Amino acid sequence: HQILPHIIVCASGGARMQEGSLSLMQMAKISSALYDYQSNKKLFYVSILTSPTTGGVTASFGMLGDIIIAEPNAYIAFAGKRVIEQTLNKTVPEGSQAAEYLFQKGLFDLIVPRNHFK
User: Fold this and answer.
1) What's the pLDDT score for residue 17?
2) What is the reported pLDDT for 69?
3) In the chain, domain spans
4) Less Cβ crowding at N or C end of the chain, within 10 Å?
């Protein structure tokens, strides 16, 4: 019996309200299944964030990995720069949604180029 890690490669522009509540509900279902996978089955989950990884994926299962890996220069955010600036009436610093900046802030464990995964 071999135990393998669960690996999810995330790439998402986010679930849109236009797609309906069913698309938004899937993020909670995936997060719940991952919790069961990690807690009850004591298995290992690796999240790989590619560009773009935005919206609810970032707010849910994309950031739940036991190890979180981002690709170099990946655009990773909950909301886009324009949405944040219009909502908060503040300027979003250039590069603040780049993998390298977020890695420096402790959001990821590694930055690894895609060709190193093969």
Assistant:
1) 63
2) 98
3) 6-112
4) N
**Which residue type is seen at 53?**
T
Lookup: tokens for 51 = 């560009």
pLDDT means over runs of 10, the chain (118 residues): 83 73 82 87 90 90 94 94 93 95 97 91
Residues 6+ apart with CB under 8 A from 101: 95
Q: Which two tokens stand for residue 57?
A: 């994926």
Q: Residue 65: CB partners within 8 Å, gap ≥ 6?
A: 8, 45, 46, 47
CATH topology for 6-112 is 2-enoyl-CoA Hydratase; Chain A, domain 1 (3.90.226)
d(CA 26, CA 118): 29
Neighbours of 24 (CB within 10 A): 16
* Rounded distance between C-alpha atoms, residue 73 and residue 89, angstroms: 26
Which residue from 33, 30, 26, 81 is spatially nearest to 54, judged by alpha carbons? 81
